[in-house]
Design a protein that fits this description.
single chain, 461 residues, mainly beta, Thrombin, subunit H, Pdz3 Domain, 2 domains, six-stranded antiparallel β-barrel, six-stranded antiparallel beta barrel, 8 helices, 23 strands, 11% helix, 30% strand
């Protein structure tokens, strides 16, 4: 994850499914911070939630970034931030005198300077304006031409959060976002907007690079499963925007460029190639989008930035990188971007509904049970302990009970919540699935049973 100061304001997927799209209730049914339940003992009755407040679906176990091994034995780069929350001293109130950002405010955030060796060439080679201004992106560009074409379409984002003792929200971190419509819609990562009480976007003046305008942004929708979010800024004049391309035509080895704001170095371009396709989503969720692996340099602050092909089309949204820690082998230039083809329907749903539609789910919360603990109780396979069943979903009439352990869906073993999601997502809302369940009898011994459940739509706002 590549959001500046993730150690303070973005635990990303550490608390993801509780603090991402499940902000409306404060972890009553989350699975990420519980220890494994003691089998055969009565569980406390869950707090009743309203339909609007309850996220009716499987809550995925988070990968504890920085705490356990990630992909290929490396730790996913999450806690690599640089901006810290301030220390309260006296009556200092950060942001108290800051002008309200409902309208644009100007600031002086410089672009990286380019030095030209005038001893050999008094004038830089002029860029081909025909290529740069081609609205259909039909010309193959070099990196210099690409930067000139798209530099104003990727903006700097600030996340402000409420801090006890301060009157105004405090700057907590910075990242990147891609403007993809003329009226100011921006796609970024869900972890970039997580826990924000205010978001702003810094846009360069199109006529004068020395001037920037900061606009307060509205969070339109956020989806932790895919780590995508849509926000919007507004003004009378249209914004420059990037074209969302076609990642289905991407090939390993092709040239790409990344544009974002690493470590708050705004509008930074890096170049590389596509190193791999179809990589796993960061969340590991069955509802996640696959990733494009790249070798271009990305760092904290690049989150939500754009992966461009050399025509100027966005083929991915920058998401995370691998880093090495402790005694693990060195990891260099292994970064990942969310595939834009898989991102497009998510973006559309977030724009229209504020959440992702037609996402099937069981309507339960649960927790992974290890194979060791399962077998200790006489259950032959690892599975998912059912901790909550939504009363307003079809699952409530299926016969499934809290305390049951689900070990398979439609005959496929499902040792984890993510494995259940992977099987469930193969179906549509309204379809039925058969669960293989182990249930304790009056003596505490677990017996196998089969339960059919109609899938409901998850409203993960």
């Amino acid at each position: 994850m590549l959001f500046v100061n993730e150690n303070n304001f973005n635990n990303g997927y550490n608390s993801g499914y509780n603090n991402g799209y499940n902000q409306n209730y404060n972890q009553p049914y989350g699975v990420n911070n519980y220890s494994e339940p003691v089998m055969n003992q009565p569980q406390p009755q869950p707090k009743k939630e309203s339909k609007a407040g309850f996220v009716a679906g499987i809550i995925a176990t988070a990968l504890v970034v920085g705490g356990v091994a990630g992909f290929a034995g490396s730790v996913i780069g999450n806690n690599i931030g640089t901006v810290s929350l301030p220390v309260i001293s006296g009556n200092e109130v950060p942001g108290e005198n800051k002008e309200d950002s409902n309208s644009a405010t100007e600031s002086n955030i410089p672009r990286p300077e380019t030095t030209i060796d005038t001893s050999k060439n008094s004038d830089p080679r002029p860029l081909d304006e025909t290529k740069i201004n081609d609205a259909n992106n039909s010309y193959l560009l070099n990196a210099e031409e690409l930067y000139a074409k798209v530099k104003d379409t990727v903006v700097l984002l600030y996340n402000y959060q409420d801090v006890q003792g301060y009157k105004e929200p405090v700057l907590s971190g910075s990242a990147s976002g891609v403007v993809f419509t003329a009226d100011g819609y921006i796609v970024t990562n869900a972890h970039v907007v997580a826990n924000a009480s205010k978001m702003t976007a810094v846009v360069y003046d199109y006529e004068n690079d020395e001037i920037t305008h900061e606009y307060e942004a509205t969070i339109i929708g956020s989806d932790t499963s895919t780590d995508l979010a849509v926000i919007k800024i507004t003004r009378d004049e249209p914004f420059k925007y990037a074209l969302l391309g076609d990642s289905g035509n991407v090939r390993v080895g092709q040239d790409i460029c990344v544009l974002g704001n690493p470590k708050s170095l705004v509008s930074t371009l890096t170049k590389g190639i596509v190193s791999g396709l179809g990589r796993a989503a960061y969340s590991g969720s069955g509802y996640g989008c696959s990733s494009i692996q790249i070798d271009a340099a990305i760092n904290s602050g690049n989150s939500g930035g754009a992966l461009f092909d050399m025509y100027g089309n966005v083929i991915g949204i920058i998401d995370y990188k691998l880093v090495s820690t402790g005694g693990t082998a060195s990891v260099e230039n292994i970064g990942f971007a969310i595939s834009i083809d898989e991102a497009k329907p998510v973006i559309n749903d977030l724009m229209v509904h504020g959440y992702v539609t037609n996402r099937p789910g069981l309507g339960i919360n649960g927790q992974d049970i290890s194979e060791y603990n399962a077998q200790r109780e006489g259950i032959p396979h690892a599975g998912v302990y059912v901790s909550y069943i939504a009363e307003d979903k079809p699952v409530a009439k299926s016969g499934l009970k809290e305390g049951d352990v689900i070990v398979a869906v439609n005959g496929v073993l499902t040792p984890t919540i993510n494995a259940i999601q992977t099987e469930v997502v193969k179906n549509n809302v309204g379809d039925t699935v058969e669960l293989t369940v182990y249930r304790a009898n009056i003596t505490g011994k677990y017996k196998e049973t089969k339960i059919t459940v109609e899938l409901s739509e998850l409203n993960l706002q």
